[in-house]
């Protein structure tokens, strides 16, 4: 079967650049939307040009120009959107509704993968304010996709290692703490962590797979389901250093939200659901859902002890 042509929207972003790389690596004809909105952002432009050197095609388009989006979408069989959904960077989830309209009008897309890649919004109906806005917006996009009868795959990739592993899941830092580490409760809630390059590999594997059509794909390999305590232990073994552990109760953790800006409050809410409630692992993967490592056992995904070695 011929490989699908892939259009990546948000290709210069944190996950998007990896999706472009994986798509090219797996032999897909790959297009990247070059948005007029980048203006004088030279870093984004140079990244786009580097994609071009690697064989990707750049398509000019704008979310303020519906016709340009339709024309871009018509070039591809599969559209993958990776626009940011985190508030401390940029938050563009709802912009995808314009992309849905373009896909609907173009009429040629065989699969749309919207910007998800984190927690499953379908399971977050009782999420705390203000962080629930992320899930509400993603669900609004899902509804628009399904109302338009657009074939889809929703990718749930859980915790990005770059934001949750190198820092031992500490807020407000990205590298391992030197002396002390804060534990969420007893630190024994199971969490799913993923290397971002592996997320991209699994995602591209899924785009032509009939088993993932109109389903949610969880990227939750068993070897990367760890508690925070286990993650800290891996770091201590690698570094040869013992850290002081300070436990934070759920009540005190939620109280820390007071006085934070909007992005900070969103972050605390999401951490609460992950590390106190166990929202990533407190259920079995059931009907209408697939798990990536089961579908693609040939992918040698990165274990978190290997991931942590770069920080030594």
UniProtKB/TrEMBL annotation:
Residues 3-308 form the NmrA-like domain. Keywords: NADP, Oxidoreductase. One of its GO terms (biological process) is lignan biosynthetic process. One of its GO terms (molecular function) is pinoresinol reductase activity. PANTHER family: PINORESINOL REDUCTASE 1-RELATED (PTHR43349:SF4), PINORESINOL REDUCTASE-RELATED (PTHR43349). The keyword NADP applies. This is Isoflavone reductase homolog. The gene is LOC18606866. Belongs to the NmrA-type oxidoreductase family. Isoflavone reductase subfamily. It holds the Pfam family NmrA.
């Amino acid at each position: 079967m011929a490989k699908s042509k892939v259009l990546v929207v948000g290709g210069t972003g944190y996950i998007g650049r990896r999706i472009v790389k994986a798509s090219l690596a797996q032999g897909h004809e790959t297009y990247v939307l070059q948005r007029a909105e980048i203006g004088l952002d030279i870093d984004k432009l140079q990244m786009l040009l580097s994609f071009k050197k690697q064989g990707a095609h750049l398509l000019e388009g704008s979310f303020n120009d519906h016709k340009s989006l339709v024309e871009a979408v018509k070039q591809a069989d599969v559209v993958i959107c990776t626009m940011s959904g985190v508030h401390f960077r940029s938050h563009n989830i709802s912009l995808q509704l314009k992309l849905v309209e373009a896909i609907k009008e173009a009429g040629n897309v065989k699969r749309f993968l919207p910007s998800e890649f984190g927690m499953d919004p379908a399971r977050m109906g009782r999420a705390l304010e203000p962080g629930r806005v992320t899930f509400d917006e993603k669900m609004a996009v899902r509804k628009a996709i399904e109302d338009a009868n657009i074939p889809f795959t929703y990718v749930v990739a859980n915790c990005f290692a770059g934001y949750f592993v190198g820092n031992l899941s500490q807020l407000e830092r990205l590298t391992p703490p030197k002396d002390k580490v804060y534990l969420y409760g007893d630190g024994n809630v199971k969490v799913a962590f993923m290397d971002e390059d592996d997320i991209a590999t699994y995602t591209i594997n899924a785009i032509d797979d009939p088993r993932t059509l109109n389903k949610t794909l969880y990227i939750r390999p068993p070897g990367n389901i760890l508690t925070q305590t286990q993650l800290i232990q891996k770091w201590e073994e690698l570094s040869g250093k013992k850290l002081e552990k300070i436990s934070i109760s759920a009540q005190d953790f939620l109280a820390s939200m007071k006085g934070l800006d909007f992005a900070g409050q969103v972050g605390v809410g999401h951490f609460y659901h992950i590390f106190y409630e166990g929202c990533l692992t407190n259920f079995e993967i059931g009907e209408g859902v697939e798990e990536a490592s089961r579908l693609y056992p040939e992918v040698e995904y990165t274990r978190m002890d290997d991931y942590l070695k770069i920080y030594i």
